[in-house]
């Protein structure tokens, strides 16, 4: 029997209750939600009080004590949820929530309190006490509204490069449009240079679908963005953002300007990070409604809760963003060293997926990194995918929750070709970065493919000997997904058909990708054949590195027979991130474990001084390679082998991490 089968048996045995199967099967209609209008009638209960310790916050991220009392017959299904104050709770999602049964002694006393972290959401918020059965919630009490006394406090500060290495863009949020200004200079005490910033925002009309423009909508506030110019290369600059009038300013922070081709460059490399609630409350995410066993947000300590997480963890593997809890502190520590020139995040950034306030959570949590390290983004499926997205490859995918790339690009502007063609390239020290959008069309003849061809043909390898291509979905993977047009193996085959010859001919050194929530890398490869290194130690082909293990729940699924490109190469299903140190002759990439910040993998690429691209030699190698068949699709009859062979590949520590999502077991209330 497989490990998975044993786990299922153990869980069922531990959780079994006489009516458990019936309870699990009796789900709401598909795509229903636990907070529909019919579920949220006003039925305030006499004697039940819901109070907040303050009706205003001075600082974004401040903690507020929410207390309740007078609860008659407390139930496991009681919950306290945070909502936008000016929206009907029946017409919007909760921003975060807790089950009151998780608060010590709350069930016994009918009273309790919880410390919620509240950001400046640019709208007032309130708390609601919800009671009732899983499919029949009602509002039993409502708190006073909470507003911000400091609406112009700059928040969610992000640095990014432009196409000009003597510039640096900085973007931040405030509630209202003011007179935004950036002051900067070579020391904290001399911020004598200044530039005004432009202001913008977006509305529901700018987004292309629900829930982002409906139940998940929240005002983004004012987006302020300006460009510091005339920067000397590889130099530390200090800056502050704020309002030219009497408004508040950010803290003075510093960054290192763009390096020259002769400099040693330090980088961070990320994908699939996400966010979490530091106060321990739970998020609400749109995709739960697509999985019938999870249609109602079951209370913790119940059979339904346990089985919901087991199904999502074992089958869908997108139950929670567990790893962010350990990855954010690691990234903050890295940022505080002050040594990094840039960070590169290749898609699936916040995982808001239409719950727009989760972009605020992400923006606050990543700010200690993005305010110090210029951070460059590409689009992932959870930022871009929707049938109505511009030039979308996928006619059925709704993974962005209706955001269609607009929210990501507005909140963190990149030097893209156009505002809608979200691909670009820049030189960064001795590296040329080409950043592509795998969610838009990339087939030969598309605007994106034409851009990639022209860009790689124009790279001066005497200036930038290294070329890295970043994108979200994988070009090589041993994921088992291989049946639908959006599946990993099908898209990987499409990408190889579009780009493999191009990347090999022009000597691309690495691709950085995410999407699969683990870490793995190929050998130097062409046509699924390892081409190894030449006599000087130079890799003959690109190494494809998947680094989607930053925060979202790990993907412990592998082909029963791994593709040849991964033969003998490391694969880790553990939370972590990558960093690199690069000069003209050496490219050192490391993968670290987030929890302990210990080195888990490292490799070094080498090029002798004066190395030049030899396209003719590359074409000869391509002609000589005999392709190795790629084990793409697994027939339905092969699922038994998948289950039997996949799970033994997992380290016990990774399996234990996945088990944490299953939750405790109790009978159905």
Automatic annotation (TrEMBL):
<keyword id="KW-0325">Glycoprotein</keyword>
<keyword id="KW-0378">Hydrolase</keyword>
<dbReference type="GO" id="GO:0003993">
    <property type="term" value="F:acid phosphatase activity"/>
</dbReference>
<dbReference type="InterPro" id="IPR004843">
    <property type="entry name" value="Calcineurin-like_PHP"/>
</dbReference>
<comment type="similarity">
    <text>Belongs to the metallophosphoesterase superfamily. Purple acid phosphatase family.</text>
</comment>
<dbReference type="InterPro" id="IPR015914">
    <property type="entry name" value="PAPs_N"/>
</dbReference>
<dbReference type="Pfam" id="PF00149">
    <property type="entry name" value="Metallophos"/>
</dbReference>
<dbReference type="Pfam" id="PF16656">
    <property type="entry name" value="Pur_ac_phosph_N"/>
</dbReference>
<dbReference type="InterPro" id="IPR029052">
    <property type="entry name" value="Metallo-depent_PP-like"/>
</dbReference>
<feature type="signal peptide">
    <location>
        <begin position="1"/>
        <end position="16"/>
    </location>
</feature>
<dbReference type="InterPro" id="IPR003961">
    <property type="entry name" value="FN3_dom"/>
</dbReference>
<dbReference type="GO" id="GO:0046872">
    <property type="term" value="F:metal ion binding"/>
</dbReference>
<feature type="domain" description="Purple acid phosphatase N-terminal">
    <location>
        <begin position="154"/>
        <end position="255"/>
    </location>
</feature>
<keyword id="KW-0732">Signal</keyword>
<dbReference type="GO" id="GO:0005576">
    <property type="term" value="C:extracellular region"/>
</dbReference>
<keyword id="KW-0964">Secreted</keyword>
<protein>
    <recommendedName>
        <fullName>Purple acid phosphatase</fullName>
        <ecNumber>3.1.3.2</ecNumber>
    </recommendedName>
</protein>
<dbReference type="InterPro" id="IPR008963">
    <property type="entry name" value="Purple_acid_Pase-like_N"/>
</dbReference>
<dbReference type="InterPro" id="IPR041792">
    <property type="entry name" value="MPP_PAP"/>
</dbReference>
<comment type="subunit">
    <text>Homodimer.</text>
</comment>
<feature type="domain" description="Calcineurin-like phosphoesterase">
    <location>
        <begin position="345"/>
        <end position="519"/>
    </location>
</feature>
